[in-house]
Amino acid sequence: MNAYADETGLEIPFLVGLYQDSLGNVPDAETALDYADYIDALGPEAPLFVSADPDQRLLSVTPYDGTGMPGKCLLSPELEILHCMTGHGFEELYDGVREQTGAR
Q1: What is the mean pLDDT of the chain?
Q2: How is the chain split into domains, by residue range?
Q3: Is the overall model pTM greater than 0.85, yes or no?
């Protein structure tokens, strides 16, 4: 469990959708597997799923426009977009979960 889960009792799974690789190229399944291995080696703080988005649909269906890196969106269990942000860290998204669930 991570510190957020310890604090709230909520285990938050992360889904990473890659719309490009590290060189700005269109990603494929191997890109997703490589990135999952990279993240896993860092010691992930939450369950993590990685998927490639070779058609780059994420940019057209989320408020994230691809200019700031990394882009992150908080989704409800019904996959409704609750909040998006750019930058490192997750505290802003955790605040969104707290607000939506009443968890403190």
Answers
A1: 81
A2: 3-98
A3: no
